[in-house]
């Protein structure tokens, strides 16, 4: 039985590759060696290790130049003609890192347009560090294929891909989210095959990362496979009973993101609550706040649930959904049941409200109306501090052009849009269908199988 390495460096990759059917599909014909941070080995092994699945620690290595390499790849070498996301991110430097901002503004417009400069830089990086710390693992397991759960923006993925190439071993990378290729700079090491969600991402891989189209394959999103199996979801009555909602009354969903990106989640909750109380929205409306899974940790993304729970205590029509998060040593991931709960929320909600998150794709996959927040709560912020800049990101443009994602420019506009969807939930359904086709490829429950076929096909191709 041949062996493959599967590198997991972040908790959401557990959801995408281990909780989905990808791991079980690979394991049918391959021995899988899962590589995770040292602190997570015991937890991951307890859950996933088996006859043909083992877990090993990622070797540690330090390079004092690594952060400088990341800056060059992300800001100096990204193609400025096509990558609006990085340009918007760099505007924040003007306030926080003025010298870096000056450097980006003056170097990137000409250097980032030269693909040969990117290729030369990646070659130079590879000469400095070929990932030699992985040598013992390669010698022990003799893998025929190396798979990373990131496209090559993180240090461990880059070094593992370089070591595999040094040993002429085939490699594949799974891009785990729709926004990655246009938000994290160029990849530090190119795999033999890149597995993406859709055709937009294939074009981004070619235009932003210089990867030939024939080395990329669109498979859809494995984590959305549940959306293609609606018969497995709870009916409205059972779901509402579980969540403490009245199934006879419509409910709105407010999806939050970490306060470091949008610090006005509570202000929007306050706005919606007051609108229901004073009749600007129908008084029979209910509110369900879906907190982002990343805010459940204690790191830079943390968001205290207590202020939200206070709204729940004071208003019987408000409910808070706190995603169940598992701690796998150093890795944090939503647990298996959380994806099903999100699918049921979107299946039964009247409308989703969110400040520019991946929830727009989830909602479209479930044909749930969604409204983007294009204002900063009760505040007026300059562009480089405002949520407005998020809607200028590269990956948001197809969403906006689809006609399926209106963006509220003010509190009054938000309430108008909510009222419209309460009257007709099918409003903009054609646009949501375009988002499904553009971003998800297919929502048929078979994306994980296509990912497995693409990974295994890396050997024959």
Mean pLDDT, rounded to whole units?
91
Largest sheet: 7 strands, parallel
Unreliable spans are none
- Return Rg in Å: 22 Å
Overall number of strands: 15
Q: What is the count of helical runs?
A: 20
The geometry reads as globular
**Approximately how much helix is present in the residues?**
40-55%
Describe this structure in words.
The chain is an alpha/beta fold and 461 residues long. The strands form three sheets. It has a seven-stranded parallel sheet with strand order 3-2-1-4-5-6-7, sandwiched between helices. 47% of the residues are buried. It is 43% helix and 14% strand. β2, α3 and β3 form a beta-alpha-beta unit. The mean pLDDT is 91. The chain has 20 helices and 15 strands.
Structure in a nutshell:
The protein is an alpha/beta fold. Helices cover 43% and strands 14% of the residues.
